[in-house]
Amino acid sequence: MTELFSLTFLFGLLHVGLFLAVTAHILLTKRDTAAATGWIGACWLMPYLGLLLYLCFGINRVRRRAQKLREDVSPEETAFLATWSHDAADSFMAPLVRMLDELTGLPLLKGNDVVCLHDGDRAYPEMLKAIGEARHSILLCSYIFRHDQIGQTFVEALAAARERGVEVRVLVDGVGSGYLYSAIIQNLRRRNIRCARFMHSLWPWRMPFINLRDHRKILVVDGHVGFMGGLNIGAENLLNQPRGRRLPVADTHFRLEGPVVQQLSEVFVRDWAFTTGETLEGDTFFPVPVAAGTVPARVVTSGPDMDVEQIEYTILQAIILARSHVCFMTPYFIPDSRFATELGLAALRGVQIDIVVPRHSNHPVTDYARNACLKTLVSAGCRVWLADPPFNHSKLMTVDGAWSFVGSANLDRRSLRLNFECNMTLHDEKTAGHLEDFMFGHRHHRLELAEINSWSLPVRLRDAACRLLLPYL
Questions:
Q1: Using an 8 Å Cβ cutoff, are 103 and 313 in contact?
Q2: From the centroid of its chain, how far is CA 130?
Q3: CATH number of 74-89+112-295
Q4: What does each C-alpha distance from 335 to 42, 263, 365 come to in angstroms?
Q5: pLDDT digits (tens, 9 = 90+) for 218-246
């Protein structure tokens, strides 16, 4: 009996000591108080199961490795950026430009050409043409790269480029492009194309790959032509051609030429080095930049490996600086309290806030959580518009018809805090005007306060319950 008591006492001490250590780790590493409280509660109220969940999903194992990677990059690799840096041309956005100079460490670059490409019907031919004309290098990153007729078309183009002697690298997400089995990766490997899966492992102690995803969509050809935006690679993005059984998905991508393309290359190179350990450098991947237009642009990335949420801070600062009009288009809109407050305050001071979201996205639970956030915004004067099908996956923002922010990031906590995202600022009235016209063309139904108040109690309870999942959607 005494021995049993001693074992029980020792086990109890171990239990308390272990959970005190985990609690201390949570307190020291979690900046979000709600997340910290939730994890502490889970660990103490669900012994061992909560601990296991925290070890798998709660610890950021990426931060330390990614910071070390940045330290290993030599100054010579980014020296060319200084040649193209310049002062902000837009006076009302000058504070944002200065903030991003400090926040990102990348300059605003002039001399770029930007072409907006809506849907795969327009974007894929341009991307395939660029791949077909490649002479030195191709860098391709996609969250979703499907093994369908479109995916196979890209594989054939990449294989042909490799046979011409072009250096080809393809990076796909470890979940978005197939978790247990990635058919597209197997196809690429059969064609001897260098490829890798970002944050992928079947081992449970390396589970953060489930919660941290590379959501970027980047294509760079010969270091001079780049593509970025929200478009994945898959047949569902073809609206005017057969798609199989998948629902159609509209989207927006951007073709770029000019110095800013090398900032896209740098984003890919860092992700590739983190995933494979291979460092890509030299003129093959970073040729001397050449001016191609007049648009000032800058890449802004974010991810859990960074100390600040750069994309989120960019959006918040742009809202603060807006003088007359802010317009968003996003497939998933679940703002946290800070984001919602800034939107509401801007509307109250007279800035017109337009938010265009799909009437129905491809994730119903996300729609329910979104609906629970809308009443406060509409009450403050924000205009919320529901877009009819097809489901539009574009991620766009404009301010005062002169500044645009585009890329892969959705307006939800997953994109702004957990995913690895890539956006771009564009200081150009022509581009902003085109995007505003595009977004205005999708203002099919305005959601009024009376309509929100008419939702039944079961619907409001469902939406509020789904909103509790905000950190994970």
A1: yes
A2: 24
A3: 3.30.870.10
A4: 24, 28, 15
A5: 999 999 999 999 999 999 999 987 666 67
